[in-house]
């Protein structure tokens, strides 16, 4: 798990004021981070085109040119000249070294984008957009310095960006690199230090990026156990019974000792799942909403869901029910909600009476999750998307490990089942959401079939091998 920051400005200031460093030192290290990455992947003599802008992002690029010059074939292109004092100083230095500027961008083994970084404060003009189109059309390996040009400080594209294979980001990870909109642009994200260790550079943060190493599976260690030791997940099956069945299968696969489908009428469930028309007294967690429709009457929901004290996952159709959303007010209960952006828009309108479009939510994912959390801090919200956001009690976690393999009906039902299984086994809502989400995304990464071919049952099957892939 790594810390995430909205901006690194205050962290740079700490380096100057507390540690006695200066911009020159930080920049030297920023460039060293990029140089080391290039040296690790490309033989000496490879060609490197560095496109530098007028500010300090450009200055990082100029320093990189100096550090690589001699060992690599360096081409430095500076279409907008220099503006910042550091960029001017760095340019004077490379000129003394004998590096001359080239007139236009040209094909190279490595293309480095150091046009604009954290200082981008307005939409790119036509000339810059055209330049980016040219750079993106080049075949070389694409490396972005700090933040790909065109990704704004909130992660939105202005209006599009350098299409990086890797972003070497300076000092600490930034939120802008983790908005869904920028996910295709940033490529792999590598953080380099700026002359002090990451621990000393970073401050306190309430926002974290999850890693595969954060996965903690419900591995069974005790020997004297029985099925009751591992909880009982009760999954509601609604009008579209398949959704509940998928969630139930995932719950059973993820270790719930017993899983029961709560049904209105007989469903064709797999033999290892039980079904009843009432919630069993031994149930230890509930999951409701997947394919629910208007299947159960209000009296039934009131008795078995709303008045229950069991930990609960709310998904899908649950967000259309004002009565079920009353559960958000239940402070003493473990409540996990897993809306995708459209469902979040419905939820928001139900709880606030405020209409907010899916696009607005997607552009402001961090802000929306924080706003929800301010009102319901005890509820664990998992906002689905290319990067899932999970928040409870002012702590926000990002899971960037998902892939487009998951963009298929049923993936979310699997997730609800995974979370229900962990709640049934006694995990807190936050732990269940984090571990369920990690499990879903790592199972998807382990899937060996074609990117378009996965079925929810493949995901459920892949879960059984995660323990081995962890070793
Ligand atoms: N302490 C520091 O200042 C450090 C800075 N570093 C580097 O410096 C970068 C930040 O430098 P700056 O603050 O100078 O910012 P940038 O170099 O990202 O851009 C600032 C310049 O671009 C102009 N600009 C902004 N948006 C524009 C647009 N859409 N079209 C045209 N011009 C635009 C601004 O007016 C300004 O002149 C970081 O991303 C990082 O790469 C690192 O070297 C680490 C230390
Ligand atoms: N491109 C993607 N990258 C990463 N994760 C994705 C992507 N597309 C979908 N997912 C994940 O897959 C799941 C889909 O959930 P959802 O849309 O509710 O599916 P359903 O309701 O059909 O089961 C979510 O957890 C989401 O974060």
TrEMBL record:
Domain YjeF C-terminal: from-to ranges: 210-470
Keywords assigned: ATP-binding, Isomerase, Lyase, Metal-binding, Multifunctional enzyme, NAD, NADP, Nucleotide-binding, Potassium
Binding site for K(+): 57, 113, 149
Catalytic activity: (6S)-NADHX + ADP = AMP + phosphate + NADH + H(+); (6R)-NADHX = (6S)-NADHX; (6S)-NADPHX + ADP = AMP + phosphate + NADPH + H(+); (6R)-NADPHX = (6S)-NADPHX
UniProt cofactor note: Binds 1 potassium ion per subunit.
Required co-factors: Mg(2+); K(+)
UniProt domain YjeF N-terminal: residue ranges: 8-202
GO molecular function, one term: NAD(P)HX epimerase activity
Any one GO BP annotation for this protein: metabolite repair
Keyword Transmembrane in annotation: no
List of residues binding (6S)-NADPHX: 56-60, 117-123, 146, 243, 291, 340, 413
Gene3D superfamilies: 3.40.1190.20, YjeF N-terminal domain
Entry's EC annotation: 4.2.1.136, 5.1.99.6
Binding site for AMP: 412
CDD domains named in the record: YXKO-related
Domain of life (superkingdom): Bacteria
Function, in words: Catalyzes the dehydration of the S-form of NAD(P)HX at the expense of ADP, which is converted to AMP. Together with NAD(P)HX epimerase, which catalyzes the epimerization of the S- and R-forms, the enzyme allows the repair of both epimers of NAD(P)HX, a damaged form of NAD(P)H that is a result of enzymatic or heat-dependent hydration. Bifunctional enzyme that catalyzes the epimerization of the S- and R-forms of NAD(P)HX and the dehydration of the S-form of NAD(P)HX at the expense of ADP, which is converted to AMP. This allows the repair of both epimers of NAD(P)HX, a damaged form of NAD(P)H that is a result of enzymatic or heat-dependent hydration.
HAMAP family, per database record: NADHX_dehydratase (MF_01965), NADHX_epimerase (MF_01966)
Quaternary data: Homotetramer.
Family statement: Belongs to the NnrE/AIBP family. Belongs to the NnrD/CARKD family.
Name of the protein described by the UniProt record: Bifunctional NAD(P)H-hydrate repair enzyme
């Amino acid at each position: 798990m790594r810390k995430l920051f909205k901006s690194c400005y205050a962290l740079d200031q700490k380096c100057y004021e507390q540690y006695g460093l200066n911009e020159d030192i930080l920049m030297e290290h920023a460039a060293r981070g990029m140089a080391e990455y290039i040296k690790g992947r490309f033989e000496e003599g490879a060609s490197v085109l560095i496109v530098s802008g007028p500010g300090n992002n450009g200055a990082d690029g100029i320093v990189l040119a100096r550090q690589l010059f001699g060992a690599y074939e360096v081409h430095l292109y500076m279409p907008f000249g220099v503006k910042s004092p550091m960029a001017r100083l760095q340019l004077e230095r490379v000129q003394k070294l004998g590096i001359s500027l080239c007139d236009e961008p040209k094909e190279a083994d490595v293309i480095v984008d150091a046009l604009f970084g954290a200082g981008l404060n307005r939409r790119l003009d036509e000339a810059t957009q055209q330049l980016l189109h040219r750079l993106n059309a080049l075949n070389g390996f694409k490396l972005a310095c700090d933040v790909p040009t065109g990704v704004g400080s909130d992660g939105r594209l202005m209006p599009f960006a350098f299409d990086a294979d890797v972003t070497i980001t300076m000092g600490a990870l930034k939120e802008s690199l983790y908005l869904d909109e920028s996910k295709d642009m940033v490529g792999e994200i590598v953080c380099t230090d700026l002359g002090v260790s990451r621990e000393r550079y970073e401050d306190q943060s309430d926002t974290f990026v999850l890693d595969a190493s954060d996965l903690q599976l419900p591995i069974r260690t005790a020997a004297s156990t029985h099925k009751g030791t591992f909880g009982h997940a009760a999954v509601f099956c609604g009008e579209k019974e398949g959704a509940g069945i998928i969630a139930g299968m995932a719950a059973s696969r993820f270790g719930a000792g017993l899983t029961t489908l709560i049904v209105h009428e007989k469903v064709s469930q797999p033999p290892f799942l039980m079904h009843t028309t009432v919630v069993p007294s031994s149930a230890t967690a509930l999951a409701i909403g997947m394919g629910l429709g208007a299947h159960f009457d209000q009296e039934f929901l009131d008795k078995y869901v709303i008045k229950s004290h069991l930990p609960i996952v709310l998904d899908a159709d649950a967000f259309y029910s004002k009565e079920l959303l009353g559960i958000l007010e239940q402070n003493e209960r473990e409540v996990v909600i897993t809306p995708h952006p459209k469902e979040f828009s419905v939820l928001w309108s139900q709880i606030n009476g405020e209409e907010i479009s899916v696009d607005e939510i997607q552009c402001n994912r961090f802000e929306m999750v924080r706003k929800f959390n301010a009102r319901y801090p005890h509820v664990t919200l998992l906002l689905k998307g290319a990067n899932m956001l999970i928040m409870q009690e002012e702590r926000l976690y990002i899971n960037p490990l998902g892939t487009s393999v998951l963009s298929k009906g049923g993936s979310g039902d699997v997730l609800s089942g995974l979370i229900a299984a962990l709640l049934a086994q006694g995990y807190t809502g936050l732990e269940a959401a984090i571990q369920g989400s990690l499990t879903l995304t790592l199972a998807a990464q382990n899937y060996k079939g074609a990117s378009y071919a996965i079925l929810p049952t493949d995901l459920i099957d892949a879960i059984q091998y995660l323990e081995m892939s962890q070793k």
